[in-house]
Design goal:
The protein is mostly helical. Among the domains are: 87 residues, 2-Layer Sandwich (Ribosomal Protein S8, Chain: A, domain 1); 30 residues; 39 residues, no CATH class. The chain has a three-stranded antiparallel β-sheet. InterPro entries: R3H_dom, R3H_dom_sf, SPAG7.
């Protein structure tokens, strides 16, 4: 016998398991297998129930969505798998581990922005809430329409004020000088940006140079004659 055999021979063999320990280990293994089987059956039943709900949801076609109760992520994943396989879309709302739930919609008609806002805020979305949101939108649209109309009225009044002088002249003197003449007079007295109330064309001298010089000479002669007459009156 060599040294290695001597050492191995001196070592004690592990104690053999008692019959009670063997039975306990066997029961533990059986319990684990039974639990796995139960979980598998539970998942299969859940999958079958979800498939039935999804099929009915598609067949009826009258519901806007198919909502499930809050559940763990594993079960929500099964819902998503079945729904997407059927050509539907799935949204999840709520806090994970507390109240997170899945909602199934058709591809053609998903959740509205109002519904997403309410659900993401932790609110409950139903027909009553939808009607409430629709009423709010209607009131907002009505208010916007009123504000738009008021803005148009302000602009319309502003435009009328710009024509106030001409319009007032026309209405005031139409019975005296006739409607057509009043209209023409009103047009001539409309505001001019450069020269105030009188149009710039009315302020331009339309005379020729010769006529202007002749008028100046005549004016000087008239003034000279007037001055001469005044002097004669003083001497007298």
């Amino acid at each position: 016998m060599d040294l290695l055999d001597s050492i191995l021979g001196s070592m004690q063999a592990p104690p053999a398991a008692s019959e009670a320990q063997k039975n306990a280990m066997k029961k533990q293994k059986e319990a684990m297998e039974r639990k796995k089987k139960e979980e598998k059956n539970m998942v299969n039943k859940f999958r079958k129930r979800v498939e039935e709900k999804v099929i009915n949801f598609i067949k009826e076609g009258s519901k806007a969505y198919l909502q499930f109760e809050p559940m763990d992520q594993m079960y929500r994943a099964i819902i998503r798998e079945i729904a997407e396989t059927a050509g539907l879309q799935v949204f999840s709302f709520g806090q994970e581990g507390i109240d997170r739930y899945a909602v199934v919609y058709t591809k053609e008609k998903g959740p509205s922005q109002d519904e997403l806002t309410v659900r993401r805020a932790g609110g409950i979305w139903d027909e009553e809430k939808a009607a409430e949101m629709a009423q709010k939108h209607a009131e907002m649209q009505k208010q916007a329409a009123l504000e738009s109309e008021e803005d148009k009225n302000r602009k319309r009044k502003h435009g009328k004020n710009n024509e106030l002088s001409g319009t007032f002249y026309k209405e005031k003197y139409a019975h005296l000088i006739g409607h057509d003449a009043a209209v023409k007079a009103a047009q001539k007295t409309n505001m001019n940006k450069s020269y105030g109330e009188v149009p710039s064309e009315n302020k331009k001298d339309q005379r020729s140079i010769e006529q202007t010089m002749a008028d100046i000479r005549a004016k000087k002669m008239k003034k000279a004659e007037s001055d001469k007459g005044n002097l004669e009156n003083v001497d007298t």
